[in-house]
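Input record, target 12 of the design panel.
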């Protein structure tokens, strides 16, 4: 195969490397666990296996409440989190640090919830002081919930969830704290109880290494109080039916997502085997290797990390800025010549559609190890050279030094 753009014979053989920020790489173990005949959904193994998932999801989120599993994607999880806790006409304050806060706000508006946006731009996290001031000014407590994203996958900003929670408390405001950890769940630390997070929204296809199709809500005891008055509740999304239903069938409001449950079970076993501290440390280390490489490229050209401050950067995805038009060329070269698929840049000022030609993203979530990541970085380095895009040298050595560090 010749590359249709350069005419050069492609080197892309061997395993393809997927470095997009979700859906992420699925481990063979997860795929194998799903490769089976349809199970009995009324009694036996599947039901026993499903029961073990809930405590493990709660443990992963540091939650002392309940977990609900939906057949759905992240958007489904967003909607469920809102319908179970809020009423039509309620107001929510949405912290925007890229694109996904905007998406959640869009769902809220569609449900008849009033939305107030606090926009922090696309390369900085939400400022706890601004949140505190906004809530302190809301003396009538019109705001019923604060919505924040842990890792905004479009900008690769990581919000400081405990600091934002602390700001809500410091303002002495009763708003619930709802957090989207769809990209970061199972990769970045989450301690709902300790941090004062009331509802966590997650999904299967990013840090959890399982095909798209499962959404999760983790529910704190405090969030259950809001359920009593929420008038947006509907039977299908109802937490109450799924948590308190007397028969297994009610956990999924119908047929369970049989094969996804086997896959998730295996993924959670892999996470248990690694241990949470190791899991978080691995993601942090791999992220630092990416930052080191991009930092070198950025000496002497227009390449740059989208998020300037280290403390504000996601551990699961890195947005890389390029000159306008270069990002698609780099992605194309990597895909055709090296077999590495990079994440497309998303425009941050819209809810759906809209790609940026001045950013690409490197996904480093879930089933990722140093050779996969270093191979991806080396391929990008080669792309910059092949395409004549100005960049600083030493990226690979800098990344390897991070991997080698004690
Ligand atoms: C991917 C993602 C979503 C949307 O999830 P879907 O499964 O595509 O609906 C929402 N929030 C964040 C932070 C995400 O990364």
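The sequence produced for target 12 reads:
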């Amino acid at each position: 195969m010749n590359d249709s753009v350069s005419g050069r014979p492609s080197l892309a053989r061997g395993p393809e490397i997927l470095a997009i920020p979700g859906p992420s790489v699925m481990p063979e173990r997860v795929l194998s666990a799903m490769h089976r005949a349809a199970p009995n959904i009324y009694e036996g193994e599947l039901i026993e296996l499903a029961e073990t998932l809930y405590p493990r999801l709660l443990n992963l989120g540091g939650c002392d409440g309940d977990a609900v599993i939906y057949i759905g994607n992240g958007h489904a999880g967003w909607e469920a989190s809102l319908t179970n806790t809020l009423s039509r006409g309620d107001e929510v304050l949405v912290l925007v640090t890229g694109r996904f806060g905007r998406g959640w706000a869009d769902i809220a508006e569609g449900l008849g919830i009033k939305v107030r946006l606090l926009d922090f731009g696309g390369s900085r996290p939400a400022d706890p002081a601004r949140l505190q001031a906004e809530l302190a000014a809301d003396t009538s407590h019109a705001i019923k919930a604060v919505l924040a994203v842990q890792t905004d996958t479009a900008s690769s900003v990581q919000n400081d969830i405990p600091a934002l929670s602390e700001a809500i408390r410091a303002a002495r405001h009763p708003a619930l704290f709802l957090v989207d950890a769809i990209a970061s769940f199972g990769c970045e630390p989450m301690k709902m109880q300790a941090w004062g997070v009331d509802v966590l929204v997650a999904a299967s296809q990013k840090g959890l290494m399982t095909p798209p199709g499962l959404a999760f809500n983790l529910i704190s005891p405090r969030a259950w109080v809001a359920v009593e008055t929420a008038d947006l509740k509907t039977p299908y999304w109802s937490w109450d039916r799924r948590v308190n239903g007397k028969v297994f069938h009610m956990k999924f409001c119908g047929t369970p997502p049989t094969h996804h449950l086997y896959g998730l079970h295996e993924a959670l076993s892999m996470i248990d085997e690694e241990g949470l501290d190791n899991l978080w440390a691995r993601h942090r280390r791999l992220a630092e290797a990416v930052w080191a490489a991009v930092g070198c490229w950025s000496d002497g050209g227009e390449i740059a990390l989208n998020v300037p401050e280290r403390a504000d950067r996601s551990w699961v995805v890195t947005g890389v800025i390029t000159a306008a038009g270069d990002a698609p060329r780099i992605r194309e070269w990597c895909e055709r010549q090296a077999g590495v698929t990079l994440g497309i840049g998303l425009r941050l000022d819209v809810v759906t559609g809209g790609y940026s030609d001045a950013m690409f993203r490197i996904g480093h979530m879930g089933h990722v190890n140093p050779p996969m990541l270093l191979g991806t970085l080396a391929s990008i380095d080669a792309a910059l050279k092949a395409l004549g895009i100005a960049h600083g040298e030493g990226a690979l050595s800098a990344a390897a030094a991070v991997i080698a560090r004690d």
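The chain is about 40% helix and 15% strand.
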